[in-house]
Every structure is written in structure tokens, then in C-alpha cells.
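Report of the visiting student (M.T.), summer placement. My assignment was to run the structure pipeline on a short list of targets and document each run. The first record concerns Metal-binding integral membrane protein.
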Amino acid sequence: MAGTPVRRVWSASPLVLTAILLAWALALASEFTGVPGWVHHHHLLSPDMAAWASIGLFLAAWQIHIAAMMLPSTLPMIGHFRHMAAAQPRPVAARSAFLMGYLIVWTGFGIAASLTYLGVHAVIEHWHWLASRPQVGVGGVLILAGAFQFSGLKDRCMEKCRHPVAFLMAHYQRGVPAALKLGLRHGLFCLGCCWALMLVMFAVGIANLAWMAPLALLMLYEKTGSAGDKIVRPVGVVLILIGLGMMMFAGPMSIEHHHG
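After the run finished, the C-alpha cells were exported:
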């Protein structure tokens, strides 16, 4: 099948488009005001904050992050589902359930990645050489993300995401529970495409605009661009080279400024 049609890419509901624009507005505002820490998982998941407040703030910030980085790349799927669900008895509920399923998958990934980050960070704190060279950890994550660009799993999941009509024709069913299940299924394929690239954001800080913007554009083009499938492996090479460079030339730096 040909690449994803463009005509329905922006046919998602105004609410979804507003969420994307608002998320980017918040990211830009936090960056240019010089106080991005309130949306950084490094600060949100902090022992200085009550556990319930820390988790709540992280989940809120992570939803903003999903809206900014992941929703744009899934707009074709959302648009086609919206079109197909229009004939259902409860189309709004079905669309809401579909999005809920998608968000559940990515929220689960965010929680798992955060807990992993905290565990790794706790170990690194006791290893002064590595703690003073955070570039080594970031470089390792970039190499992992680059290597995943060559995997068969990436290819299979990308095939599903790049052809939303074929995906929906194969799995679409009427009803709110079916819509939730379909959103979960789509979310898993989307996760299979992009988990390694999103993991990079945990290494550099989830509100780091210098990484956030190019990675979001990359994931958008991989899924919707006419040559999106052709850039996957070249991007992998670039990520691996950047990661190797960061690891090879990493010098000690102030630990206090690591997450500043």
C-alpha cells in the first residue's frame, strides 16, 4: 500500500489539535522562561517531595510530553478512526476510548522508564567516575536508540503505523470497548516504533527542547513522510555516531549541574 494519505492527517478533533498546540506552548514557555524544571522528570521524581505529589506531577507532565511528541505522529490514525467511527451510535465515546487506550500504553511506558531511570541513577550516584560523566550514559542510550533503528521489530511496527487504513480495516470493530482495545493495540505498535527514541528523552530530560523538537519531527516524518521508511537506518547510523562521540570525549563535569 502507498504511504499514508495526507488529506486526513489534520482531520482529528479540535480538542486533539488544541492539546498538541498547548503542549508545545508549555514546552516553549518553560524553555524560554528559563524554568523548565517543573516538567523535568529529574526534579519531579524527587525524594524532597511527597510521593503522591511527585507521582501526580510527573504523570501530568508526561501527558503533556505525549501530546507534544507522540500525538502529532498518530494524527493520521486518529483521523481515519474518527472518520470510520462517525457511523457508530456513540462516536464521541468511541473516539475518547480509542485515545484513552493509546494514552494508557504511553503512560505505562513513562512510569516504567521513570522507575528504571531512578534505579539506574541510584546506582550511578555511588560510582563517582560515571556520575561525573553523564554524557557517557546519554551516549549509551543514543547508541541503543540507533541500534534499534535496524531491528525487525521497528520495521514491523512502523509498517502498521505508516498504513492506518490497512490497520483499521484489519482490526476495527464498533463499540466503545472495541475502540479502547484498538487504541491499546495501536499504542503498542506506536510504542514498538518509538520507545527507544523516547528513551533518549529520559536521558537528556523530558523538557529538553533541543532534543524534544528534532526527535518529535523525526518520529512524525518516519510515520507520515513519503520517504519515512527510508530514513530509519540512516538516522540509526547518526544516533550511534553521536552516542559514540559523546562516550569517547566525555570529560568530568559538575554533578550539581547535570540536571540543571
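The first helix runs from residue 14 to 32. The chain has one domain: 14-250. I thank the supervising group for their guidance throughout the placement.
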